[in-house]
Amino acid sequence: YTQEIPKEIRNKERHFIFTADSKNKKNKFIHSIDARDYKTKFSGYRYNITFAGNPARENREKILAKLIYNFGTINIYCRSFDFYKSLEDIEKSKLLDEYFLELYKQSYKGYVDSKKELAQIYSSTKINIDIADEHKKSINYRILEILAANGFLISEYNKENVKYLDDGKDFETFKTEDELIDKIKFYMKNLNLAQMISMRGRRNAVSNFSY
Length: 211
Known about the structure:
By secondary structure, the protein is α/β, with parallel strands linked by helices. About 45% of the residues lie in helices and about 15% in strands. It has a 6-stranded parallel β-sheet with strand order 5-4-3-6-7-8, sandwiched between helices. Strands 1-2 form a two-stranded antiparallel ribbon. β6 (about 125-130), α6 and β7 form a beta-alpha-beta unit. The longest helix is centred in the C-terminal third of the chain and has 19 residues, at about 190-210. It starts with 6 loop residues before the first helix and ends with a helix.
């Protein structure tokens, strides 16, 4: 409970809040957010595809390269160190040739630390992508941010995501790169359906994951 957090910690700007899942016998803790931080008014689409997070992971680099190859430039938000590390990795592994590597460079949009600005980006993006960290199998904090901002999300499948969120109704999942590409193409042509899913996803995030 927030009120039980020591004052010296609670007053600091950066900390995580967790809530207990009362239905879980192991009393597992899951992320919570303050949904008010991500409330934003939808004012139209500005971006096609957005990925926010550290791209310098082998799995993420492969998927991002696939997105660049199929859709051209996208929006990547992360720290500059992490982006250039991923760029170096992609170049070494030859995931992209010179032409597409240039498109990958153009996709870097910088680092965003403001929750309000992040919410505006998520809300005004047609397709937000979440790619799991190979070492983390729990529900991703960024998923809750995107949903709370009323952003449409396609997330890499894991058991924790679909345990707490309704696949196909709160968000979409993918298990393979080809499935991700197919779903992006489908929802690009069916944005009304994507908006319906994002609205339901936000209601879930606000009702069940906000403290």
